[in-house]
Amino acid sequence: MPITSKYSDDQIEVILTEIAAVLDKNGASSELSLMIAGNIATNVLNTNVPATQRKAIAEKFAQALLSSIEESKTH
Asked: Per its UniProt record, what NCBIfam families does this chain match (predicted)?
């Protein structure tokens, strides 16, 4: 079951396009792009989420990532 976001698809698409352009401009491989994405996620958790909630949110994030991969296999 998809999760409804409080952010518009347009807002998300604009940011993703800009990030993809930066990665492309720098010739980032898939591996480097994933490393950067992981570092961004870690930074957001460490700087914006209380320490008592980080693990739970990281687990939810990981599950959402796994779910999105599983959904894309069926489409």
From this structure: PRK13689.1 (NF010242)
